[in-house]
Amino acid sequence: MKFPILRLQRLRQNPILRKMFQEIRLSVSDLIMPYFVVPGRGVKKEINSMPGQYHFSIDVFLEELEEVKNLKIPAIILFGIPKIKDNMGSEAYDEEGIIQSAVRAIKEKIPEIVIITDVCLCEYTDHGHCGLISNNKIDNDLSLELISKIALSQARAGADIVAPSDMMDGRVKSIREILDKNGYYQIPIMSYAVKYASSFYGPFREAASCAPLFGDRKNYQMDYRRDKEAILEAGLDIQEGADILMVKPALAYLDIISKIKEKFNHPLAAYSVSGEYNMVKAASKAGWIKEEEMIAEILTGIKRAGADIIITYFAKDVAKLIHGGVI
User: What is the pLDDT of residues 77-90, one digit of tens each?
Assistant: First the structure.
């Protein structure tokens, strides 16, 4: 059929019709909220580089999570800032470390929230890199032992999902083996399978105090000018035992999300990162955009590309919009 018999505008004429025929719908169950936990008590400090996001001590964080629970956001992902950083990132796998302590406290008070823990060394090392340094270079194979120890310690504390973000080759296999050996064979691995070396991470690095003291992460994170490598990375992680794949960042990599979903049809997460968050916040503060509409459009685009779940600093805002019928 052709115009004038077929008029595609007919089903766009009012909000009810538009909502009835939506093909992509955001749901609260799509959302994961990231958080930064820090030592101490009574701490709720706004992060300079990320307006509207905070460093929480565990006691205050438990109060914050009551809102997450009430909004029915199913899951959170945790990043920790330790008391002391060293060249081995030792607090990352300390049974009494900040993340391990936070996980136990959450599980005791709000056990229904799914806790995802970031598995990496960068927040815990004094040099800010995601692996161990040997002869001024990242030693991939030496790092695997510690990466695996982090995941095991988090699982012991009660984490529901462990999420390696270090981009060391072989880390998923190493983590799967140590978890299974210790009886945690039901703990899923959400692998940062496709993590690009991106300028979108800037605000996060200040928030987590993890900017590298020398060099950069381009020798282990992916080059944004490569796309076929993303398929290889994702395929290898599936073979090694990844239960969920992740693409990070999201907004500039919608094509990668789409290709990986089409190729593998494996559970897929996308991380809408700090730089994406800040661009929306800055434009909104300047009065150039309508923040709520922009958030909804971006996250819907990420889901339309193929993401099953979305890690976003806007999770609470979006949940409120969904519950209010705005989205």
Answer: 999 999 989 888 89
Which one of 47-51, 90-94, 189-193, 211-215 scores highest in mean pLDDT? 189-193
Higher-pLDDT residue of 206 and 150 is 150
Is 195 an annotated catalytic residue? yes
Query: Tell me: the pLDDT tens digits for 32-89?
Result: 999 999 999 999 999 999 999 999 999 999 999 999 999 999 999 999 999 989 888 8
- Per the structure, the complete domain to which residue 126 belongs is given by 24-323
Would residue 18 count as lying in a domain? no
Residue 74 CA to residue 69 CA, distance in Å, equals 8
Extract the tokens encoding 179: 């978890």
CA dist 134 → 87, 140, 258 (Å): 11, 10, 37
Terminal-to-terminal C-alpha distance of the chain: 32
Does the residue 56 lie in any domain? yes
pLDDT averaged over every residue in the chain: 94
In a domain, 137, yes or no: yes
116 vs 79: CA distance, rounded Å: 9
Q: Which residue in the list 85, 173, 195, 259 is annotated as catalytic?
A: 195
Pairing type for strands 268-272 and 244-248 reads parallel
Concatenated DSSP letters of 162-177? EEE-S--TTHHHHHHH
Q: Choose, from 85, 173, 248, 281, the residue flagged as catalytic.
A: 248
Residue 83 annotated to the active site: no
